[in-house]
């Protein structure tokens, strides 16, 4: 073997067998038995600190003592989630999120696992967690997942060592995510110890101990990083347009506002490090974030950290957008902030989470203007309600809504009447579905009523403030973080083109005023509209007159009626109950059995014992599944009477 081969030879130990209990784990167990569990602060110390130290305080002090510059690196993000504040549904929402479609290595749905099983029943875990005061949620991301190959054994061994550190058995589930550039594991840990008491973990252990244990484990399994690996990683950082470890080193080396790099070091490693730092400073100088003031002496811009972090975030956005567009060429419209989100109409090309720990999502919208738009959603937004391919309208929250101006303009003596609005629309636009347009305004009023902005006096009669437009703008801004995303259709336009039902495409044909680009999704929309016209002509709902297309006057109502009738016949065969269609203005009472998603929208199935009716659904009734509700059909929508049930609740 040559000297060169001997230098390059490197042993990489494999992962231990699943049943092998590591020596370090046994040592930690004995340490915990000897003092980790029984050591507690004095009463005076507890009074001064104002908090319990919790489990793992001793382990936090001894973890990572063997770590050095060549140790493997693992990032762990932690969130303490208080369930009583967030509500029980937050458990289900989070478990559904981490097990969502497309996160596995093969692009399939994620699979939860636990200490001893590869298929954990997350519904059972959710039920067990209902009475917990809190949960711990972790994201574990080893730097060398490409070498680890599998995350499950690593996660299980890490949780086993945590049990030894904390001196209790832990109840947890995990899901591996492979859908990002950095594969990682989501771990949900119940806030109960093995005795059923609240699990309190020391802050130091959460802040440092867990990460150090993970780094120890990765180093044991993969061996220390070689000098070549370390140098290669730092070399990649020299030209990156983001905040890096080299930038942190430069920041820590600041002395009186400047960085001095010693040229005279005799240590080869120090010279290599200096070369990398000089290279980074030269790159920062080319970006206007650093300046050389003397040989070996540099100053850094006061905004260099913020600028680099913003560049890194923008780079992540561009990669996410390109991934969502799958190679299709688009001009990328990336807002500098939420306030820059102007009115956008288009289809959802992709979605994901910009902050996985706090579950804050983003949408990539392929707009009818021929551009792709990146939109960061508010924290409370549910990504599941925005299916890929669906049509959305995004409006900036900086301006008041047109609907609010319309309502305020039609109000007399502070009262808005729906019948006056219908008559006004029928006189001005006889071809439009006046009842549907007014119902859209009523839904807006219902939302504002729940916020205390307006008051419902009676059916079709509302008391509105004189400054409704401004109050509505403030409500939208507080609720949506600066803009609103409204789902216009859950169906992609390809399916809308030839489906029976009142679709978003039909509304575009009726409006006939929107500016649509001749490229990108705009071009696809124009093609779909032509196909939709052909379908409507074949159904006798449109007529071609030379270069003009004349649509049936009651187009939307007719399509909606046909859609409901077809769905009713299908459900009638399935349930054995008779379908009873409703007339406009008719009141219906029944047990809310389920939601039915049609091309015309979402409908609630109300069963009265003799038959059932399909009534336009609203999000506010979803929590009342199995209860007796009353609704009044009003055009394309319905007024729900939630506070005055006319029968007993049926579960």
Descriptive notes:
- With 651 residues, the chain is an alpha+beta fold.
- It folds into 5 domains: 215 residues, BirA Bifunctional Protein, domain 2; 58 residues, no CATH class; 79 residues; 63 residues, Arc Repressor Mutant, subunit A; 85 residues, OB fold (Dihydrolipoamide Acetyltransferase, E2P), CATH 2.40.50.
- It contains 22 helices and 24 strands.
- A 6-stranded mixed beta sheet has the order 8-11-10-9-12-16. A 6-stranded mixed beta sheet has the order 19-22-21-20-23-24. A 4-stranded antiparallel beta sheet has the order 1-2-4-3, with helices on both faces.
- A hairpin with a 6-residue loop joins β3 and β4.
- α9 crosses α10, α16 runs antiparallel to α17 and α20 packs across α21.
- The termini are far apart.
| Sequence of strands across the biggest β-sheet | 8-11-10-9-12-16
Helix content: 25-40%
Secondary-structure content class: alpha+beta
Q: Would you identify the CATH architecture of the largest domain?
A: 2-Layer Sandwich
What fold name stands as the CATH topology of the largest domain? Answer: BirA Bifunctional Protein, domain 2
**Topology, number of strands:** 24
The total of helices stands at: 22
* Strand percent estimate: 15-25%
Query: Which regions have little confidence, pLDDT < 50, spanning 5+ residues?
Result: 1-6, 37-52, 336-341, 644-651
Mean pLDDT: 82
First-residue to last-residue Cα separation: 77 Å
What shape does the CA trace take?
A: globular
Cα-atom Rg, whole angstroms?
31 Å
Give the number of domains.
5
Please give the largest β-sheet: 6 strands, mixed
CATH class of the largest domain: Alpha Beta
